[in-house]
């Protein structure tokens, strides 16, 4: 387990205390084993509320207007929708079996859901839960990412090892890119010029060019003293205005830092055990990463690229979402 | 308080037509078109007919032959347990579907030929027939003698034969063959997987109670090897020689209760009983009936296996759910090894773009080959004996797996999974 030195923790406390209140934010963490969402005050890291969800909550995302939080509850075969003002579950979306990850279009009108068990992507209207289309993809779809211009949605299939590209207008597949084993997450660069896909078992990130749908670069990982099979990239988040990509590495207990220009790993940050997903703070200065096996969340300072604090959350924490401001504010 | 689902007004539920989706998918496969939205999914009716359609000419085709023989399976010890006659083939059928699902997106197509002869049938003749037809990719659901006879055929020299059935160590050692790949773990890997856990638990003294079939002798020798490797001790190698009886006996448990106590009372002190009973005709009787209160491991009790009915980690629920949809029963180990053998071939073909045996073999043996198969790490082949390196599940009788080996603390310079079974310096295999 990661132990952060007392000095670092004190520094972190000062750092957090000094943070101006204008950066108020709220952090949501899904706890896969507890069937709950932990809601933390981003200033104090105090618990605001624990919300009980349907079983096995994993992927969580906020609507673009931050008014709703979508929680994919895999064992519940449902998406719980939490009102971020009242912090109550106000409605549910009938996602179909075993939803894992999802993404919403920039207008917040359409949600794209990976149905892991049925090898399909469900495209649904957010407002009323109406299914607009179901697109068959490879086996065990997981990662979902709508491109910045709402032109495409990328879906990764873990067992088939592909990134499938859906044309959002026609809702048909236009490309299928073979990547390394067990692709987990997909992320577009802000300008939509690159699609990044993490391969957990292959131990690489593939950078795909949407003009050709070809892989232009594969990024690998290497940490002295760790065996290659421990280096398993899962989540991916751009920080520092897209200059860096942070990648939780699962059993390596580290977050890798990638220079997005050079497409090279520049640093590794030691966190808790089995980090899979994280999320940058609203101001982009911090990165929150959920450590599955140590039941906590590590806070990384993006400027210094150091872990400054960890806070306890629920059991088997999986995903993180961040909302600017406080509930009810 | 009512559960939320009941409190909320129900949104219209979308009919969950998994089969229709599959049917639609296969239709699109046959027509060579890119799958589109499923709006018109309901128009197609039968998935199986469509899947048999020949693939479009522009696809790279790889044809896999499931070569098997209907050997008499040992009867399960419990009279109430179902006798499974389609172990293995169901895993191959699942992978056929999944391989085409993937292949359809990248211009590959896969076919499965089921070539299973009756118990008194000539499997070598069947193999010759398949080889003469130009087939070179085999899933071998065969016992060691048949496997060797097939792999030694001159025309099979450039074939790739996936051993999905036999755990015999000699097939990885003295009797290894360059055209055979072993998907299923051998007895050495199984013994090491259990031994590591027992050493980790500080239970190093093992009382072996076994039968004396060829399989049992092989397993027993590997347990002794594991003891020497990891610092355990076989305190006694005890043969259980009462003949197997009828399985359905009124009040039979009373007699068993006394017998098992007798079998274990004169043993030197030990930490666990290691049962070796490949024919499954008495091993389970040992549990809770030994003289001393000792756990049972081996072919019964805590078992080392490539797949277990209790395993759900690293995406494993996908396989647990997918087999019953096809087979109307839970998956067993051979379903998994058949699925994995096919998957090794299809994955290597799609990733390398090659569908000739030489190209596929060379990719399977390269460092590029990293197979995902619900074990939380990439699987690959050992170059020295073609055994698939893989973590091993310890389960068998428990509702959740007990653990997965290799265990923490057992180190290896390159691959931790190479602490299970014959490592490179120990191999007797020469291709």
Description:
The complex is a heterodimer of chains A (329) and B (431). By secondary structure, chain A is mainly β. Chain A is built from 1 helix and 28 strands. In chain A, the strands form 7 sheets. Chain A has a 4-stranded antiparallel sheet with strand order 3-2-1-28, with no helix packed on it. A 4-stranded antiparallel sheet of chain A has the order 4-5-6-7, with no helix packed on it. With 431 residues, chain B is α/β, with parallel strands linked by helices. Chain B contains 12 helices and 14 strands. In chain B, the strands form 4 sheets. Chain B has a 5-stranded parallel sheet, sandwiched between helices. In chain B, strands 7-6-8-9 form a 4-stranded parallel sheet, with helices on one face. In chain B, helix 4 packs parallel to helix 11, helix 7 crosses helix 8 and helix 11 crosses helix 12. Chain B is globular. The N terminus of chain B is likely disordered. Classes of the chains: A mainly beta (329), B alpha/beta (431). The interface between A and B is large, with 50 and 40 residues.
Task: Name some characteristics of this structure.
heterodimer; A: 329 residues; mainly beta; 4-stranded antiparallel beta sheet; 1 helix; 28 strands; 4% helix; B: 431 residues; alpha/beta; 5-stranded parallel beta sheet; 4-stranded parallel beta sheet; 12 helices; 33% helix; 16% strand; disordered N terminus
């Amino acid at each position: 387990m990661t132990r952060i030195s007392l000095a670092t923790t004190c520094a972190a406390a000062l750092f957090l205390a000094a943070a101006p209140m204008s950066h108020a934010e709220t952090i949501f963490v899904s706890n896969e084993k507890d069937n709950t969402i932990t809601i933390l005050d981003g200033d104090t890291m105090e618990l605001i509320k624990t919300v009980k969800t349907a079983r096995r909550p994993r992927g969580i995302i906020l609507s673009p207007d931050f008014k709703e939080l979508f929680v994919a509850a895999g064992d519940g075969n449902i998406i719980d929708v939490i009102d971020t003002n009242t912090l109550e579950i106000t409605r549910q979306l009938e996602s179909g079996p075993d939803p894992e990850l999802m993404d919403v279009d920039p207008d917040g009108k359409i949600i794209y859901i990976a149905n892991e068990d049925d090898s399909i992507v469900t495209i649904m209207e957010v407002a009323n839960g109406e299914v607009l289309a179901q697109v068959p993809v490879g086996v065990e779809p997981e990662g979902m990412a709508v491109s910045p211009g709402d032109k495409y949605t990328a879906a990764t299939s873990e067992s088939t090892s592909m990134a499938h590209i859906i044309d959002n207008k026609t809702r048909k597949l236009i490309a299928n890119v073979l990547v390394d084993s067990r692709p987990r997450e997909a992320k577009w660069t802000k300008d939509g010029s690159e699609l990044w896909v993490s391969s957990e078992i292959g131990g690489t990130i593939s950078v795909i060019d949407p003009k050709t749908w070809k892989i232009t670069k594969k990024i690998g990982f290497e940490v002295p003293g760790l065996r290659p099979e421990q280096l398993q990239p899962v989540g991916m988040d751009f920080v520092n205005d897209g200059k860096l990509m942070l990648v939780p590495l699962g059993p390596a207990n580290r977050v890798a830092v990638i220079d997005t220009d050079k497409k090279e790993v520049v640093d590794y940050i030691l966190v808790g055990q089995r980090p899979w997903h994280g999320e940058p703070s609203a101001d982009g200065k911090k990165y929150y990463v959920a450590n599955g096996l140590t039941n906590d969340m590590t806070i990384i300072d993006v400027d210094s690229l150091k872990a400054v604090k960890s806070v306890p959350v629920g059991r088997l924490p999986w995903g993180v979402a961040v909302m600017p401001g406080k509930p009810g504010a | 308080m009512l559960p939320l689902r009941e409190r909320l007004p129900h949104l219209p539920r979308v009919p969950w037509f998994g089969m229709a989706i599959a049917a639609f998918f296969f239709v699109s496969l046959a027509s060579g078109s890119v799958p589109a939205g499923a709006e018109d999914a309901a128009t197609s009716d039968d998935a199986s007919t469509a899947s048999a359609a020949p693939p479009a000419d522009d696809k790279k085709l790889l044809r896999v032959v499931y070569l098997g023989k209907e050997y008499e399976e040992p009867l399960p010890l419990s009279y109430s347990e179902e006798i499974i006659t389609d172990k293995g083939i169901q895993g191959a059928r699942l992978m056929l579907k999944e391989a085409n699902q993937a292949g359809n997106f990248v211009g590959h197509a896969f076919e499965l030929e089921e070539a299973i002869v009756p118990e008194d049938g000539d499997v070598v003749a069947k193999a010759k027939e398949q080889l003469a037809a130009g087939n070179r990719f085999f899933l071998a659901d065969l016992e060691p003698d048949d496997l060797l006879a097939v792999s030694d055929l001159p025309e099979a020299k450039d074939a790739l034969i996936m051993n999905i059935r036999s755990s015999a160590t000699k097939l990885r050692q003295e009797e290894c063959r360059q055209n055979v790949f072993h998907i299923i773990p051998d007895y050495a890997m199984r013994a090491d997987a259990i031994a590591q856990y027992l050493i980790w638990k500080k239970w190093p003294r093992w009382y072996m109670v076994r039968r004396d079939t060829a399989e049992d002798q092989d397993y027993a020798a590997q347990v002794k090897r594991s003891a020497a490797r990891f610092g355990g001790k076989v305190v006694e190698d005890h043969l259980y020689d009462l003949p197997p009886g009828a399985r359905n006996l009124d009040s039979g448990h009373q007699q068993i209760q006394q017998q098992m106590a007798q079998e274990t009372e004169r043993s030197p002190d030990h930490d666990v009983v290691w049962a070796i009973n490949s024919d499954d005709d008495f091993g389970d009787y040992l549990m809770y009936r030994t003289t001393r209160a000792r756990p049972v491991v081996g072919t019964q009790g805590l078992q080392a296996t490539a797949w277990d009915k209790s395993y759900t980690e690293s995406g494993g629920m996908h396989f647990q759910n997918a087999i019953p949809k096809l087979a109307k029963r839970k998956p067993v180990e051979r379903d998994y090894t058949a699925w994995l053998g096919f998957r090794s071939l299809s994955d290597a073909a799609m990733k390398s773009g090659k569908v000739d045996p030489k190209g596929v073999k060379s990719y399977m043996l390269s460092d590029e080959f990293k197979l995902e198969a619900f074990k939380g790490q990439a699987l690959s082949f050992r170059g020295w004996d073609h055994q698939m390196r893989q973590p091993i599940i310890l389960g068998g009788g428990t509702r959740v797996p007990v653990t997965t080996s290799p265990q923490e603390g057992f180190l290896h310079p390159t691959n931790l999974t190479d602490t299970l079974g014959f490592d490179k310096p120990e191999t007797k295999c020469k291709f």
